Amino acid sequence: MSVPGMRRAAVGLTALAVAALGAVATTGEQADARPKPVDVTLLALNDFHGNLEPPSGSSGTIAGQTAGGVEYLATHLAELRAAAKKTNTITVAAGDLIGASPLLSAAFHDEPTIEALSMAGLDYASVGNHEFDEGAAELLRIQNGGCHPVDGCADGTPYRGAGFKYLSANAFKTATGKPLMAPYAIHKVQGVKVGFIGMTLEGTPQIVSQQGVAGLTFADEAETANRYARELRRKGVQTIVVLLHEGGAQAATGGINDCVGMTGPIVDIANRMDPSIDVVVSGHTHQAYNCNINGKLVTSASSFGRLVTDIDLKIDRRSGDVISAAANNVVVTRDVAKDPKQTALIDRYKTVLGPVADRQVGETTEAITKTQETLFGTTLGESPLGNLVADAQLAATDDEQNAVAAFMNPGGVRADLDAGPVTYEEAFTVQPFANNLVTLDLTGAQLYCVLEQQFVTGRTLYPSSTVGYVVDPAGATGTAANPCAGTRVVRGSLTIGGAAVDPAATYRVTVNNFLAGGGDGFSALTGGTNQVTGQIDLDALVAYLTAQSPVSAPALDRIRTTAEVPAA
Fold first, then answer.
1. pTM recorded for the entire structure
2. How far are the Cα atoms of 157, 169, 416 from residue 349, in angstroms, in the given order?
3. How far apart are CA 544 and CA 541, in angstroms?
4. Nearest to 328 by CA among 306, 296, 300, 304
5. Band of residue 21 on the pLDDT scale cut at 50, 70, 90
Protein backbone atom coordinates (compact mmCIF):
# COMPACT_ATOMS: atom_id res chain seq x y z
CA MET A 1 0.00 0.00 0.00
CA SER A 2 1.02 3.65 -0.18
CA VAL A 3 3.08 5.14 2.62
CA PRO A 4 0.11 6.82 4.35
CA GLY A 5 -1.81 3.56 4.21
CA MET A 6 1.12 1.62 5.62
CA ARG A 7 1.50 4.03 8.50
CA ARG A 8 -2.16 3.89 9.32
CA ALA A 9 -2.08 0.10 9.28
CA ALA A 10 0.89 0.00 11.62
CA VAL A 11 -0.69 2.49 14.01
CA GLY A 12 -3.97 0.57 14.04
CA LEU A 13 -2.28 -2.71 14.85
CA THR A 14 -0.27 -1.11 17.65
CA ALA A 15 -3.44 0.32 19.18
CA LEU A 16 -5.06 -3.11 19.05
CA ALA A 17 -2.02 -4.62 20.70
CA VAL A 18 -2.10 -2.01 23.46
CA ALA A 19 -5.78 -2.61 24.10
CA ALA A 20 -5.26 -6.36 24.23
CA LEU A 21 -2.12 -6.36 26.39
CA GLY A 22 -2.83 -3.29 28.49
CA ALA A 23 0.80 -2.20 28.18
CA VAL A 24 3.25 -0.83 25.66
CA ALA A 25 6.53 -2.66 24.91
CA THR A 26 9.23 -0.40 26.30
CA THR A 27 12.24 -2.67 26.73
CA GLY A 28 14.66 -3.78 24.03
CA GLU A 29 13.68 -7.39 24.63
CA GLN A 30 10.00 -6.56 24.19
CA ALA A 31 10.69 -4.54 21.06
CA ASP A 32 12.77 -7.34 19.57
CA ALA A 33 9.89 -9.74 20.20
CA ARG A 34 7.78 -7.98 17.57
CA PRO A 35 7.56 -9.95 14.30
CA LYS A 36 10.32 -8.97 11.92
CA PRO A 37 9.33 -7.92 8.38
CA VAL A 38 9.36 -10.48 5.61
CA ASP A 39 12.03 -9.73 3.00
CA VAL A 40 10.87 -10.50 -0.54
CA THR A 41 13.04 -10.09 -3.64
CA LEU A 42 11.53 -9.69 -7.09
CA LEU A 43 13.80 -10.27 -10.08
CA ALA A 44 12.23 -8.67 -13.15
CA LEU A 45 12.85 -8.50 -16.89
CA ASN A 46 10.88 -7.47 -19.94
CA ASP A 47 10.98 -7.45 -23.74
CA PHE A 48 13.30 -10.45 -24.06
CA HIS A 49 12.13 -11.09 -27.65
CA GLY A 50 13.72 -14.53 -27.92
CA ASN A 51 17.30 -13.29 -27.65
CA LEU A 52 18.80 -16.58 -26.51
CA GLU A 53 22.21 -15.69 -27.89
CA PRO A 54 23.89 -12.39 -27.03
CA PRO A 55 22.47 -9.63 -29.24
CA SER A 56 24.90 -8.02 -31.67
CA GLY A 57 25.71 -4.39 -32.36
CA SER A 58 24.09 -1.65 -30.30
CA SER A 59 21.39 -4.10 -29.19
CA GLY A 60 24.05 -6.02 -27.26
CA THR A 61 25.33 -3.17 -25.10
CA ILE A 62 23.92 -1.08 -22.27
CA ALA A 63 25.46 1.35 -19.80
CA GLY A 64 28.74 1.04 -21.69
CA GLN A 65 28.96 -2.74 -21.31
CA THR A 66 28.31 -5.71 -23.55
CA ALA A 67 25.28 -7.48 -22.13
CA GLY A 68 22.66 -10.14 -22.69
CA GLY A 69 22.43 -13.77 -23.73
CA VAL A 70 20.37 -16.32 -21.82
CA GLU A 71 23.46 -18.30 -20.75
CA TYR A 72 24.64 -15.25 -18.81
CA LEU A 73 21.15 -14.16 -17.78
CA ALA A 74 20.53 -17.50 -16.06
CA THR A 75 23.81 -17.21 -14.17
CA HIS A 76 23.05 -13.66 -13.01
CA LEU A 77 19.58 -14.71 -11.85
CA ALA A 78 21.07 -17.59 -9.88
CA GLU A 79 23.62 -15.28 -8.26
CA LEU A 80 20.95 -12.72 -7.33
CA ARG A 81 18.84 -15.46 -5.80
CA ALA A 82 21.82 -16.70 -3.83
CA ALA A 83 22.43 -13.18 -2.51
CA ALA A 84 18.85 -13.10 -1.23
CA LYS A 85 17.01 -15.93 0.43
CA LYS A 86 16.19 -18.26 -2.43
CA THR A 87 12.78 -19.18 -1.02
CA ASN A 88 11.91 -15.49 -0.76
CA THR A 89 12.74 -14.69 -4.40
CA ILE A 90 10.10 -14.43 -7.13
CA THR A 91 11.12 -13.98 -10.79
CA VAL A 92 8.73 -12.03 -13.00
CA ALA A 93 8.50 -10.49 -16.47
CA ALA A 94 6.49 -7.71 -18.12
CA GLY A 95 5.73 -9.16 -21.53
CA ASP A 96 7.16 -9.58 -25.03
CA LEU A 97 9.26 -12.54 -24.01
CA ILE A 98 8.55 -13.96 -27.45
CA GLY A 99 7.76 -12.54 -30.88
CA ALA A 100 10.05 -10.47 -33.11
CA SER A 101 12.67 -13.05 -32.17
CA PRO A 102 15.92 -14.10 -33.83
CA LEU A 103 15.77 -17.16 -36.09
CA LEU A 104 17.06 -19.59 -33.45
CA SER A 105 13.88 -19.07 -31.44
CA ALA A 106 11.38 -18.01 -34.11
CA ALA A 107 12.04 -21.02 -36.35
CA PHE A 108 10.55 -23.16 -33.57
CA HIS A 109 7.64 -20.83 -32.76
CA ASP A 110 9.60 -19.48 -29.78
CA GLU A 111 9.45 -22.77 -27.89
CA PRO A 112 13.22 -22.53 -27.17
CA THR A 113 12.74 -19.20 -25.40
CA ILE A 114 9.92 -20.50 -23.25
CA GLU A 115 12.01 -23.55 -22.33
CA ALA A 116 15.04 -21.38 -21.54
CA LEU A 117 13.17 -18.90 -19.34
CA SER A 118 11.33 -21.72 -17.58
CA MET A 119 14.69 -23.34 -16.85
CA ALA A 120 16.03 -19.97 -15.63
CA GLY A 121 13.34 -19.92 -12.95
CA LEU A 122 10.73 -17.49 -14.26
CA ASP A 123 7.55 -17.63 -12.14
CA TYR A 124 5.05 -15.14 -13.63
CA ALA A 125 4.84 -13.01 -16.78
CA SER A 126 2.36 -10.60 -18.22
CA VAL A 127 1.29 -10.97 -21.84
CA GLY A 128 2.86 -8.42 -24.17
CA ASN A 129 1.55 -7.38 -27.56
CA HIS A 130 4.04 -9.67 -29.33
CA GLU A 131 2.68 -12.68 -27.47
CA PHE A 132 -0.33 -12.21 -29.78
CA ASP A 133 1.70 -12.24 -33.02
CA GLU A 134 0.42 -15.73 -33.91
CA GLY A 135 -2.98 -15.32 -32.26
CA ALA A 136 -4.70 -16.26 -29.01
CA ALA A 137 -4.83 -19.99 -29.75
CA GLU A 138 -1.06 -20.11 -30.24
CA LEU A 139 -0.51 -18.16 -27.02
CA LEU A 140 -2.58 -20.72 -25.14
CA ARG A 141 -0.49 -23.49 -26.71
CA ILE A 142 2.68 -21.73 -25.63
CA GLN A 143 1.33 -21.70 -22.08
CA ASN A 144 -0.15 -25.19 -21.96
CA GLY A 145 2.05 -27.21 -24.33
CA GLY A 146 1.49 -29.47 -27.31
CA CYS A 147 2.99 -29.60 -30.79
CA HIS A 148 2.31 -26.81 -33.26
CA PRO A 149 -0.86 -27.59 -35.27
CA VAL A 150 0.93 -27.09 -38.61
CA ASP A 151 4.65 -27.59 -38.05
CA GLY A 152 4.38 -30.21 -35.32
CA CYS A 153 7.26 -30.59 -32.87
CA ALA A 154 9.98 -29.33 -35.17
CA ASP A 155 12.87 -30.37 -32.96
CA GLY A 156 11.53 -33.90 -32.60
CA THR A 157 10.68 -33.63 -28.90
CA PRO A 158 7.34 -32.89 -27.19
CA TYR A 159 6.70 -29.30 -26.19
CA ARG A 160 5.52 -29.34 -22.58
CA GLY A 161 4.47 -25.70 -22.26
CA ALA A 162 5.70 -22.91 -20.05
CA GLY A 163 7.09 -23.66 -16.63
CA PHE A 164 5.82 -20.25 -15.53
CA LYS A 165 2.37 -18.68 -15.54
CA TYR A 166 1.28 -16.07 -18.06
CA LEU A 167 -1.16 -13.52 -16.58
CA SER A 168 -3.55 -11.51 -18.72
CA ALA A 169 -5.96 -9.25 -16.85
CA ASN A 170 -7.16 -6.90 -19.59
CA ALA A 171 -7.42 -9.15 -22.68
CA PHE A 172 -11.00 -10.38 -22.75
CA LYS A 173 -12.79 -12.79 -25.05
CA THR A 174 -15.20 -10.52 -26.88
CA ALA A 175 -17.93 -13.17 -27.11
CA THR A 176 -18.02 -14.00 -23.38
CA GLY A 177 -16.41 -11.03 -21.66
CA LYS A 178 -14.15 -13.41 -19.74
CA PRO A 179 -10.36 -13.00 -19.46
CA LEU A 180 -8.35 -14.99 -22.00
CA MET A 181 -6.01 -16.20 -19.25
CA ALA A 182 -5.73 -15.92 -15.46
CA PRO A 183 -5.75 -12.20 -14.58
CA TYR A 184 -3.67 -12.54 -11.44
CA ALA A 185 -1.78 -14.91 -9.16
CA ILE A 186 -1.23 -14.99 -5.41
CA HIS A 187 2.20 -16.08 -4.19
CA LYS A 188 2.79 -16.80 -0.49
CA VAL A 189 6.14 -16.03 1.12
CA GLN A 190 6.55 -16.94 4.80
CA GLY A 191 2.84 -16.56 5.36
CA VAL A 192 2.38 -13.18 3.61
CA LYS A 193 0.54 -12.95 0.32
CA VAL A 194 1.95 -11.16 -2.73
CA GLY A 195 -0.47 -10.53 -5.59
CA PHE A 196 0.64 -10.22 -9.23
CA ILE A 197 -1.66 -8.69 -11.85
CA GLY A 198 -0.54 -9.11 -15.47
CA MET A 199 -1.61 -7.15 -18.53
CA THR A 200 -0.64 -5.79 -21.89
CA LEU A 201 -1.22 -2.34 -23.31
CA GLU A 202 -4.74 -1.33 -24.22
CA GLY A 203 -3.57 -0.28 -27.69
CA THR A 204 -2.51 -3.81 -28.70
CA PRO A 205 -5.06 -4.04 -31.57
CA GLN A 206 -3.39 -1.04 -33.24
CA ILE A 207 0.08 -2.60 -33.29
CA VAL A 208 -0.67 -6.30 -33.88
CA SER A 209 -2.15 -7.83 -37.02
CA GLN A 210 -5.91 -8.14 -36.92
CA GLN A 211 -5.64 -11.93 -37.14
CA GLY A 212 -3.53 -11.91 -33.99
CA VAL A 213 -6.18 -10.20 -31.86
CA ALA A 214 -9.30 -11.57 -33.53
CA GLY A 215 -12.06 -12.22 -30.99
CA LEU A 216 -10.37 -10.21 -28.24
CA THR A 217 -11.10 -6.91 -26.52
CA PHE A 218 -8.49 -4.95 -24.55
CA ALA A 219 -9.47 -2.84 -21.53
CA ASP A 220 -7.93 0.25 -19.92
CA GLU A 221 -4.79 -0.62 -17.97
CA ALA A 222 -5.36 1.48 -14.83
CA GLU A 223 -9.05 0.65 -14.54
CA THR A 224 -8.30 -3.06 -14.91
CA ALA A 225 -5.48 -2.95 -12.37
CA ASN A 226 -7.73 -1.18 -9.87
CA ARG A 227 -10.53 -3.69 -10.41
CA TYR A 228 -8.33 -6.68 -9.67
CA ALA A 229 -6.52 -4.89 -6.83
CA ARG A 230 -9.89 -4.62 -5.10
CA GLU A 231 -10.49 -8.32 -5.68
CA LEU A 232 -7.06 -9.19 -4.28
CA ARG A 233 -7.67 -7.10 -1.17
CA ARG A 234 -10.91 -8.96 -0.57
CA LYS A 235 -8.77 -12.10 -0.54
CA GLY A 236 -6.47 -10.68 2.09
CA VAL A 237 -3.68 -9.55 -0.26
CA GLN A 238 -2.12 -6.21 0.71
CA THR A 239 1.12 -6.38 -1.31
CA ILE A 240 0.18 -5.89 -4.98
CA VAL A 241 2.52 -5.88 -7.99
CA VAL A 242 1.38 -5.07 -11.53
CA LEU A 243 3.31 -6.64 -14.42
CA LEU A 244 2.38 -4.21 -17.18
CA HIS A 245 3.45 -4.33 -20.80
CA GLU A 246 3.35 -0.57 -21.30
CA GLY A 247 5.95 1.99 -20.40
CA GLY A 248 7.61 5.31 -20.94
CA ALA A 249 11.00 6.92 -21.39
CA GLN A 250 13.24 9.24 -19.45
CA ALA A 251 15.47 12.00 -20.78
CA ALA A 252 18.65 10.96 -22.56
CA THR A 253 20.72 12.19 -19.62
CA GLY A 254 19.23 9.54 -17.32
CA GLY A 255 21.12 6.36 -16.49
CA ILE A 256 19.69 2.87 -16.07
CA ASN A 257 18.70 3.59 -12.47
CA ASP A 258 17.44 7.13 -12.97
CA CYS A 259 14.08 8.72 -13.65
CA VAL A 260 14.87 12.01 -15.40
CA GLY A 261 12.02 13.85 -17.10
CA MET A 262 9.86 10.74 -17.30
CA THR A 263 7.25 10.78 -20.07
CA GLY A 264 4.99 8.28 -21.81
CA PRO A 265 1.80 6.33 -21.07
CA ILE A 266 3.16 4.78 -17.87
CA VAL A 267 3.02 8.16 -16.09
CA ASP A 268 -0.72 8.60 -16.58
CA ILE A 269 -1.41 4.92 -15.88
CA ALA A 270 0.53 4.93 -12.60
CA ASN A 271 -1.13 8.17 -11.53
CA ARG A 272 -4.56 6.62 -12.06
CA MET A 273 -3.76 3.39 -10.20
CA ASP A 274 -5.20 2.68 -6.76
CA PRO A 275 -2.93 3.48 -3.76
CA SER A 276 -3.03 -0.22 -2.81
CA ILE A 277 -0.77 -1.03 -5.78
CA ASP A 278 2.83 -0.96 -4.59
CA VAL A 279 5.03 -1.86 -7.57
CA VAL A 280 4.65 -1.59 -11.35
CA VAL A 281 7.10 -3.66 -13.40
CA SER A 282 6.72 -2.17 -16.88
CA GLY A 283 8.02 -2.70 -20.41
CA HIS A 284 7.20 -2.25 -24.11
CA THR A 285 9.33 0.85 -24.71
CA HIS A 286 12.67 -1.01 -24.34
CA GLN A 287 13.86 1.67 -21.92
CA ALA A 288 15.61 1.41 -18.57
CA TYR A 289 14.33 3.44 -15.61
CA ASN A 290 13.81 3.26 -11.87
CA CYS A 291 11.08 5.63 -10.72
CA ASN A 292 8.70 6.59 -7.97
CA ILE A 293 5.43 7.68 -9.58
CA ASN A 294 2.44 8.48 -7.40
CA GLY A 295 4.01 6.66 -4.45
CA LYS A 296 4.64 3.53 -6.50
CA LEU A 297 7.91 1.93 -7.47
CA VAL A 298 7.89 1.84 -11.29
CA THR A 299 10.69 -0.01 -13.12
CA SER A 300 11.77 -1.22 -16.53
CA ALA A 301 14.75 -3.40 -17.51
CA SER A 302 15.34 -2.19 -21.07
CA SER A 303 15.21 -5.17 -23.48
CA PHE A 304 16.78 -8.38 -24.83
CA GLY A 305 17.81 -9.66 -21.39
CA ARG A 306 20.50 -7.01 -20.92
CA LEU A 307 19.24 -5.96 -17.48
CA VAL A 308 17.57 -7.57 -14.49
CA THR A 309 15.68 -5.37 -12.04
CA ASP A 310 16.45 -6.41 -8.47
CA ILE A 311 13.48 -5.26 -6.34
CA ASP A 312 13.64 -5.56 -2.56
CA LEU A 313 10.41 -5.42 -0.56
CA LYS A 314 9.99 -5.40 3.20
CA ILE A 315 6.51 -6.58 4.15
CA ASP A 316 4.85 -6.27 7.53
CA ARG A 317 4.30 -9.82 8.72
CA ARG A 318 1.03 -9.00 10.49
CA SER A 319 -0.71 -6.56 8.15
CA GLY A 320 0.77 -7.77 4.85
CA ASP A 321 1.55 -4.17 3.86
CA VAL A 322 4.75 -3.09 2.12
CA ILE A 323 6.96 -1.21 4.55
CA SER A 324 9.60 -0.28 1.98
CA ALA A 325 10.39 -0.94 -1.67
CA ALA A 326 13.65 -0.32 -3.53
CA ALA A 327 15.00 -1.37 -6.92
CA ASN A 328 18.29 -1.62 -8.77
CA ASN A 329 18.77 -2.36 -12.47
CA VAL A 330 21.66 -4.81 -12.75
CA VAL A 331 23.57 -5.26 -16.02
CA VAL A 332 23.63 -8.85 -17.34
CA THR A 333 27.35 -8.81 -18.05
CA ARG A 334 29.15 -11.49 -20.02
CA ASP A 335 32.04 -11.86 -17.61
CA VAL A 336 30.33 -14.60 -15.60
CA ALA A 337 30.27 -18.32 -16.30
CA LYS A 338 27.74 -19.53 -18.86
CA ASP A 339 24.91 -21.63 -17.51
CA PRO A 340 25.68 -25.11 -18.94
CA LYS A 341 22.02 -26.11 -19.23
CA GLN A 342 21.27 -23.03 -21.32
CA THR A 343 24.31 -23.74 -23.49
CA ALA A 344 23.06 -27.27 -24.09
CA LEU A 345 19.61 -25.96 -25.07
CA ILE A 346 21.08 -23.49 -27.55
CA ASP A 347 23.37 -26.13 -29.06
CA ARG A 348 20.48 -28.57 -29.44
CA TYR A 349 18.33 -26.11 -31.37
CA LYS A 350 21.23 -24.87 -33.48
CA THR A 351 21.92 -28.44 -34.53
CA VAL A 352 18.29 -28.94 -35.56
CA LEU A 353 18.25 -25.64 -37.41
CA GLY A 354 21.14 -26.90 -39.51
CA PRO A 355 22.92 -24.94 -42.22
CA VAL A 356 19.93 -22.72 -43.06
CA ALA A 357 20.93 -20.02 -40.60
CA ASP A 358 24.51 -19.73 -41.84
CA ARG A 359 23.68 -19.55 -45.56
CA GLN A 360 25.12 -16.34 -47.01
CA VAL A 361 22.47 -14.33 -48.84
CA GLY A 362 24.38 -11.15 -49.59
CA GLU A 363 27.05 -8.70 -48.57
CA THR A 364 27.18 -5.11 -47.33
CA THR A 365 29.97 -2.60 -47.94
CA GLU A 366 29.34 -0.97 -44.56
CA ALA A 367 27.16 -1.33 -41.49
CA ILE A 368 23.57 -0.45 -42.33
CA THR A 369 21.66 0.59 -39.23
CA LYS A 370 17.99 0.92 -38.37
CA THR A 371 18.67 4.18 -36.51
CA GLN A 372 16.30 6.96 -37.53
CA GLU A 373 17.64 10.40 -38.35
CA THR A 374 16.49 13.34 -36.26
CA LEU A 375 13.83 15.52 -37.84
CA PHE A 376 12.54 18.62 -35.98
CA GLY A 377 14.37 17.51 -32.86
CA THR A 378 12.68 14.10 -32.77
CA THR A 379 13.47 10.74 -34.37
CA LEU A 380 10.84 11.09 -37.08
CA GLY A 381 13.20 10.79 -40.01
CA GLU A 382 14.44 8.12 -42.38
CA SER A 383 16.55 5.09 -41.55
CA PRO A 384 19.26 3.62 -43.79
CA LEU A 385 18.06 0.06 -43.26
CA GLY A 386 14.41 1.11 -43.38
CA ASN A 387 14.97 2.68 -46.78
CA LEU A 388 16.76 -0.45 -47.98
CA VAL A 389 13.84 -2.65 -46.87
CA ALA A 390 11.40 -0.39 -48.73
CA ASP A 391 13.58 -0.65 -51.84
CA ALA A 392 13.55 -4.43 -51.54
CA GLN A 393 9.77 -4.49 -51.30
CA LEU A 394 9.40 -2.30 -54.36
CA ALA A 395 11.84 -4.50 -56.29
CA ALA A 396 9.72 -7.54 -55.42
CA THR A 397 6.51 -5.98 -56.73
CA ASP A 398 7.37 -3.44 -59.45
CA ASP A 399 7.27 -5.83 -62.40
CA GLU A 400 5.03 -8.39 -60.69
CA GLN A 401 2.26 -6.00 -59.52
CA ASN A 402 3.16 -2.77 -61.33
CA ALA A 403 4.04 -1.08 -58.01
CA VAL A 404 5.62 2.35 -58.27
CA ALA A 405 6.33 2.96 -54.58
CA ALA A 406 6.70 1.08 -51.29
CA PHE A 407 6.52 2.08 -47.64
CA MET A 408 7.84 0.21 -44.58
CA ASN A 409 6.80 0.66 -40.93
CA PRO A 410 9.69 1.42 -38.53
CA GLY A 411 8.64 -1.17 -35.94
CA GLY A 412 9.12 -3.93 -38.50
CA VAL A 413 12.86 -3.25 -38.86
CA ARG A 414 14.28 -5.00 -35.81
CA ALA A 415 18.09 -5.10 -36.05
CA ASP A 416 21.10 -3.61 -37.82
CA LEU A 417 23.12 -5.27 -40.57
CA ASP A 418 26.85 -5.39 -39.87
CA ALA A 419 29.42 -4.79 -42.58
CA GLY A 420 30.45 -7.81 -44.63
CA PRO A 421 28.67 -11.09 -45.43
CA VAL A 422 24.97 -11.27 -44.54
CA THR A 423 23.60 -14.64 -43.47
CA TYR A 424 20.00 -15.78 -43.70
CA GLU A 425 19.83 -15.61 -39.89
CA GLU A 426 20.94 -11.97 -39.90
CA ALA A 427 18.38 -11.07 -42.56
CA PHE A 428 15.70 -12.88 -40.56
CA THR A 429 16.62 -10.90 -37.43
CA VAL A 430 15.97 -7.70 -39.39
CA GLN A 431 12.52 -8.87 -40.52
CA PRO A 432 11.22 -11.68 -38.28
CA PHE A 433 7.44 -11.21 -38.60
CA ALA A 434 6.76 -13.14 -41.82
CA ASN A 435 4.38 -10.46 -43.09
CA ASN A 436 3.12 -10.74 -46.64
CA LEU A 437 3.61 -7.91 -49.10
CA VAL A 438 0.37 -6.31 -50.26
CA THR A 439 0.16 -4.11 -53.35
CA LEU A 440 -2.88 -1.86 -53.57
CA ASP A 441 -4.32 1.16 -55.37
CA LEU A 442 -4.22 4.56 -53.67
CA THR A 443 -5.18 7.91 -55.13
CA GLY A 444 -2.73 10.76 -54.85
CA ALA A 445 -5.04 12.36 -52.27
CA GLN A 446 -5.01 9.17 -50.21
CA LEU A 447 -1.21 9.09 -50.39
CA TYR A 448 -1.02 12.60 -48.97
CA CYS A 449 -3.40 11.52 -46.21
CA VAL A 450 -1.22 8.49 -45.37
CA LEU A 451 1.82 10.73 -45.08
CA GLU A 452 -0.06 13.24 -42.92
CA GLN A 453 -1.04 10.39 -40.64
CA GLN A 454 2.64 9.93 -39.76
CA PHE A 455 2.49 13.10 -37.68
CA VAL A 456 -0.63 11.92 -35.87
CA THR A 457 0.79 8.48 -35.04
CA GLY A 458 4.33 9.69 -34.35
CA ARG A 459 5.72 7.04 -36.72
CA THR A 460 7.57 7.61 -39.99
CA LEU A 461 7.01 5.29 -42.92
CA TYR A 462 10.27 4.50 -44.68
CA PRO A 463 9.82 5.30 -48.40
CA SER A 464 11.32 3.55 -51.39
CA SER A 465 13.84 5.40 -53.56
CA THR A 466 11.10 6.38 -56.01
CA VAL A 467 9.41 8.58 -53.39
CA GLY A 468 10.29 12.11 -52.34
CA TYR A 469 8.47 14.85 -50.45
CA VAL A 470 9.00 17.95 -48.31
CA VAL A 471 7.82 18.47 -44.72
CA ASP A 472 6.94 21.84 -43.23
CA PRO A 473 7.59 21.90 -39.45
CA ALA A 474 5.20 24.84 -39.15
CA GLY A 475 2.38 23.01 -40.87
CA ALA A 476 -0.76 21.90 -39.05
CA THR A 477 -1.03 18.37 -37.70
CA GLY A 478 -4.21 16.50 -38.46
CA THR A 479 -6.26 14.64 -35.89
CA ALA A 480 -6.85 10.95 -35.31
CA ALA A 481 -10.37 11.44 -36.66
CA ASN A 482 -9.22 13.51 -39.63
CA PRO A 483 -5.51 13.06 -40.44
CA CYS A 484 -6.11 14.39 -43.94
CA ALA A 485 -6.65 17.87 -42.46
CA GLY A 486 -2.92 18.09 -41.73
CA THR A 487 -0.61 20.32 -43.78
CA ARG A 488 2.79 19.05 -42.66
CA VAL A 489 3.52 17.60 -46.12
CA VAL A 490 3.92 20.48 -48.55
CA ARG A 491 1.28 20.13 -51.22
CA GLY A 492 2.82 19.61 -54.65
CA SER A 493 6.10 18.34 -53.20
CA LEU A 494 5.22 14.62 -53.26
CA THR A 495 6.82 12.90 -56.23
CA ILE A 496 6.95 9.31 -57.44
CA GLY A 497 9.61 8.50 -59.99
CA GLY A 498 10.45 12.19 -60.17
CA ALA A 499 6.95 13.22 -61.28
CA ALA A 500 4.58 15.21 -59.09
CA VAL A 501 1.76 13.15 -57.63
CA ASP A 502 -1.67 14.05 -58.97
CA PRO A 503 -4.29 13.92 -56.16
CA ALA A 504 -6.85 12.55 -58.63
CA ALA A 505 -4.60 9.88 -60.19
CA THR A 506 -4.23 6.28 -58.95
CA TYR A 507 -0.90 4.70 -57.93
CA ARG A 508 0.07 1.11 -57.15
CA VAL A 509 1.78 1.05 -53.75
CA THR A 510 3.31 -1.83 -51.77
CA VAL A 511 3.16 -2.19 -47.98
CA ASN A 512 3.09 -5.22 -45.70
CA ASN A 513 -0.16 -6.83 -44.61
CA PHE A 514 0.19 -5.33 -41.12
CA LEU A 515 0.10 -1.81 -42.55
CA ALA A 516 -2.55 -2.70 -45.12
CA GLY A 517 -4.81 -3.64 -42.22
CA GLY A 518 -4.33 -0.24 -40.57
CA GLY A 519 -1.49 -1.28 -38.27
CA ASP A 520 0.49 1.34 -36.33
CA GLY A 521 -2.50 3.65 -36.68
CA PHE A 522 -2.27 4.04 -40.47
CA SER A 523 -6.00 3.66 -41.01
CA ALA A 524 -5.79 5.62 -44.27
CA LEU A 525 -4.18 2.56 -45.89
CA THR A 526 -7.33 0.51 -45.32
CA GLY A 527 -8.94 2.59 -48.07
CA GLY A 528 -6.68 1.01 -50.67
CA THR A 529 -8.37 -1.04 -53.40
CA ASN A 530 -7.43 -3.90 -55.75
CA GLN A 531 -5.25 -5.53 -53.13
CA VAL A 532 -2.94 -8.33 -54.26
CA THR A 533 -1.05 -10.34 -51.64
CA GLY A 534 2.48 -11.30 -52.56
CA GLN A 535 5.51 -12.98 -51.03
CA ILE A 536 6.82 -12.86 -47.49
CA ASP A 537 8.71 -9.65 -46.69
CA LEU A 538 11.81 -11.57 -45.58
CA ASP A 539 11.96 -13.36 -48.92
CA ALA A 540 11.86 -10.00 -50.68
CA LEU A 541 14.74 -8.71 -48.54
CA VAL A 542 16.83 -11.84 -49.12
CA ALA A 543 16.26 -11.69 -52.87
CA TYR A 544 17.25 -8.02 -52.96
CA LEU A 545 20.42 -8.58 -50.95
CA THR A 546 21.40 -11.45 -53.23
CA ALA A 547 20.70 -9.53 -56.44
CA GLN A 548 22.21 -6.19 -55.42
CA SER A 549 25.27 -7.26 -53.40
CA PRO A 550 27.46 -5.68 -52.35
CA VAL A 551 24.85 -3.33 -50.88
CA SER A 552 25.59 0.08 -49.40
CA ALA A 553 23.50 2.21 -47.03
CA PRO A 554 20.94 4.24 -48.97
CA ALA A 555 21.14 8.01 -48.69
CA LEU A 556 18.69 9.74 -46.35
CA ASP A 557 17.35 12.16 -48.93
CA ARG A 558 13.80 10.99 -49.55
CA ILE A 559 12.17 13.14 -46.89
CA ARG A 560 13.37 16.75 -46.80
CA THR A 561 12.26 19.81 -44.87
CA THR A 562 11.38 23.34 -45.93
CA ALA A 563 14.71 24.39 -44.42
CA GLU A 564 16.41 22.29 -47.10
CA VAL A 565 13.94 23.05 -49.88
CA PRO A 566 12.56 26.60 -49.46
CA ALA A 567 9.00 27.13 -50.60
CA ALA A 568 8.71 28.45 -54.13
1. 0.83
2. 11, 33, 24
3. 5
4. 300
5. very low
